[in-house]
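explain this chain.
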Amino acid sequence: MRFRNSLHRLFIPSHGTRLEYLARLTTVGVLLGFAVALLVGALGRFRSTGQDVELIARQPSAGGWSRERIVVNQGERVRLRIRSEDVVHGFAVGRLGVEADPIEPGKVTTVEFVADRAGEFPFYCTMWCDPNHARMRGILEVRGPAGFPLASSTPASDVTLQHLDDPRDAGVVPQVMSSATRGLPLYGQRCASCHGARAEGTPGGPGVGRREFLVDRRPADVFQMLAGATTHDGSPRAGAHGPGAPRSPHAALSHSQYVRGWSEQDRWDVVAALWSLDSSAEHIDLGRRLYLKNCAACHGERGRGDGPGGKSQPNTPANFTDPRRMLAGTSAIYTAKIRRGGMGTGMPYWGSIFTEEELTALVDYLRTFSLTHRE
């Protein structure tokens, strides 16, 4: 009897409590609806339903990729079935680590991945296929839960773009390629006491082997600094090139007393040593792999600007083994150049494809064509 009375009061409330009951019931319904909406949204975001996409690769002169844009949802497992109708192609999605090559004519190459990041990611051909190879690009659009792509990365700041294409000449270059292997013992004998064993800096001297010190400095300027002609901040040393006041506590230091007896080649070897201290073998190897896959077709496997693809370009590709040019440019300049591409030269942009780590590794590898890394 008591149970029946309780049910009666629950489902048939008295007149005095009826409005309060309806208000509570409405509130519970709204809360339940909100929870269900959140659950559906979460499942939609993280669902792993599959999507099969057919993609045909053709030379740019025959139309390029059969799709310029592929649209998928975040969380989906994507299965790309790629085939070539003419020559061997390759396929990669920038910044997602998705690769498939070689894509041979008459065969289907399948690559699967989960589109776990929202944004727009360029896909491109990774194997030289045509004089207009750089046009083999498209967009993989990964839509987030709201139905639109989110920004995939924050644009990196660059050096002033107007200076990217300026001609460069180091003026003085080594007679033989400089060597970090020869330069490291010299650095240890004369420089480590002030600048640290790995040029990381000490209270007595700045970190001349740190990336933030080297990124905006030309190797030719560091060579002059080692001769005592300039200071750490690049300004002329007082008495070396006319009057001038030092701009930092270390600017008054003259290196001439520490490098007495060194030949020009010795100084160039120490320059190579400094550039090698902030880059690991793994980092250089990453740059090498990126270079061989994406750059060697035009610039040549040995960086001499003699790759077969370069013959069809409006400008001769850069020769990275030319010390007069390479030792006169900063790493910041070369990073910005790769990121933006060569205006009017046929060189494509890579800023939306390579990560900042990959750009840095690639520039460090390019340095090895004129500053030999540790052997």
In short: The two ends are 93 Å apart (CA to CA). The chain has a mean pLDDT of 82. The chain has twelve helices and ten strands. Residues 50-143 form a domain with the Immunoglobulin-like fold (CATH 2.60.40.420).
